[in-house]
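Bumping with the actual sequence this time:
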Amino acid sequence: MRAGPDGPEGRLRRFTTIWSRAVYPVTSTSLTRAEFEEELLPLARRLSELLRARGFDADGAKRVGAALVGAHCTDPEALARTLDCVDAYLVLYCAEDGPQDQPRMRSSRLQHAMAAGYAEALRERTLTEQESIAQAALQAQGLVAQALHASEARFRAVFEGAAIGIGIADLEGNVLQVNEALLRMFGQSDHALRGRRVQDWVHPEDAPQTWKLYDELVRGEREHYHLEKAFNRPDGTVLWTNLTVSLLRDADGAPQYQLALMEDTTERRLLNLRLRYEATHDALTGLPNRTLFFERLEKVLAAGEGQRFGLCYLDLDGFKTVNDSLGHAAGDRLLVEVADRLQSCATAPGEMVARLGGDEFVALTTGPGTERAVDELAERIMSALITPISIDGRDLMVRGSLGIVEGPAGERTAAEVLRSADITMYRAKSAGGNRSELADPEADARAITRHGLTTALPTALERGEFFIEYQPLVHLGDGSVRGAEALVRWLHPQHGVLGPDRFIPLAEHTGLIVPLGRWVLEESIRQARAWRERHGEETAPDPLRINVNLSPCQLSHPGLVQDTVDILERAGVAPEALCLEVTESALIGADDDLLKPLHRLAEMGVDIALDDFGTGYSNLANLRRLPVSILKLDRSFTQGMQQFPADPVDLKIVEGIVTLAHSLDLAVTVEGVETGAQAEQLRMLGCDTAQGWYYARPGPPERLHDLALVDATG
C-alpha cells in the first residue's frame, strides 16, 4: 500500500522528513532541522534512484553513506537510525508499484553498502583527526618551554572537540584526563574514568602482543603502537576500538605521559561479523557453506603429525524429481529438514556439517581416531534419512548416496580430498544409491583418467589422434577374405593406443560419438574405395565389403541416413559395399521411428548386421520386423568349441541359431574365432563368415589388401 496520492516527489519529501527527524538529535551541526532536512534531500533522492535502478550500484550507496559523515552525522547512533529509516521507509515511499520482495532485497543491499561507505569515510576522517591530534600533541610537547600557554590552549581545543576518544595517563597507568568522546564511548562519568588504571582494562580477546607493547612504551623503548582492542563497558557490553597509544616526553626527552586515541569500531565490527556470517553460511539451511567448509578442511589438513580426518559426502537420490513434481518450494523445505537431521548427527567435538550447494552436503570429523568415527558418522547420517519427511501432506522417502574419505592430515589438499569424496559418492550412486562407499585410490585414479579422456576427446578428433584398424571377415566355405570390420583406436599422447572400450562409452555420454562415428564411416568408406581400386587392378574377385559399427546415439541421430548417402556418393562407393553393425541391445524394444533409418538404409542396399546376437535376450520373433540381413553371433556361444570335443550344448545352440537365421534368409557371422578346430566346427554348422585372431588380428589397411590378394591369387 502506498503512502499517499501526492506523487513521487511528495513521497520522497515525506521520507526525507522522517529521516531528518530521526538523525537530527544525534548530529553535531549548526543547521536548523529544516535546513538539515534540505541537506538530506539529495541523499534521499539518490537512494530512491538506486532502489529503482536496473542494476545494483554499490559505489553509489557507499557515496551516500560517506556523505552522511560529510554532513557531520558522525555519532554511531546516526548510522543506526539512518539504517533503521531506510529499512522501514525507503521501499514504502520510494519503490515503484508492484511486488515488494525485490525492492526489499535491494534496500537491504543498499544498507550494507551505505554502512560500508559510512565506515570508510568515518575512518578516513578519524585518521585525519588522529594525525592532527598527534601533530598537535607533539608540537605542544616541543614548545612547552617556549609557549606553554598557547600550546595548552590549542591542545585543549583539539582534545575537547575531537570526535574520537582521547585519554592521557601517567607512566604508572593512572588515567589523568579524558575527553567527552571517550566518556560517551565508555558510558561512564569523568570521575569514574579518571579513577581507573590502564592495567585494569585487560580483556580476554586482547592480542598476545598488547601488553608487551604497552610495557615497552612506558619504559621509553617505543614511541607509539597501534592495534585493535576490546574494552568491557559497565553495562556488560563490549567496546571495540582502533587504539593508538603514543609516548609524550618532557623537554629533556624523558618519558612523561602516555596519550591514547580511540576510534569506536563496535558497529563496524558487528556489521563485518554479520556480513562474514552471510558470506560463509547457506541462506536456506543456515549450515556452513562451501567457503567456510573449505577453510575448516584446509585448517584440519594442515594439522600436525598424528591428526586424521574423516569426510562424508552426501548427495540425495532423486531430489530433482521432488523439485519437478512438487515444486522448488517443497524441495527447499525438504533440504531444510535434511539439513536439520544432518546437524543432529554431528554433535561430537571436531565434527561439522555443511551444504555445498543444491542437494549436496558434507560432514567432517577430526581427531586421532577417525577410522571408526567416520564410519559411525556415516551410519548416523544414513539412519537419519530413513524416516520419511512430510511435505504438503505427502510423506517423502529420502535416499542418499554417501562417499567416505578417511586418512591422515597433511598428505592431500582440500580440493583433492573433496574430489575423492565426490568420485566415491558417484560410485555409490552408480551402484544403485541409498548406500555408502569408502574411497578407493585405484577407483579414484580410474575416474580421474576417465574425466581426463572425456575432456580431451573433442580436441583429439580435431588433432587427428584417432586411427582405424581393420580385422578381416573370412568366408568359412572357401577361406577367402570378404571384407573387414573397421575398429577405431585412439593414439593418446600420454596413455598410448586406447581401444574403443576405453573411450566409446565416454563419447556416447558426451555426444561426441556422432562426429566421431561420422569420421569413422567416412574414413572406412574411403579405405573401401582404395581397396577396390587396388584389388581391381590385379584380380577381380568379389569386392571387399567394409563393416562399420553404429552406436545407439548415432542410430537416433536425425542426420544418419543423409550423412551415409553423402559419404557414399562423395567416395563413389555403392551402398552394397557397406555393412552397418548395430548391437542387439540397442534394438531391443525399438519402436518404428527408431527402426525407420535402418529400413531406409537397407532399402538403399546397405547391409545391416545385428551385432553381439544372443546377449540381449531379445525375442527371436522380433527378427522378422528388423531390417537386418546378417546375424553376428556373440563369441560367448563359440568359446566351448575351442577344444575338442566341443561342448554339445554350444553346438546345439549355434546349430539352432544358424538354422533359424538361414530360414529367415539371414547370413551368420561368428566373432572370436581363435582356433582351427573352432573354425571347422562353425563351418560344419553352416556359419557363413567369421573373424578372430585365428585369421588375423586388427591391423593397418595394407595388411588386409595383402591377405585379400593372397586369397585371390592362391
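The C-alpha cells above came from a reply further down the thread. The chain is about 50% helix and 20% strand.
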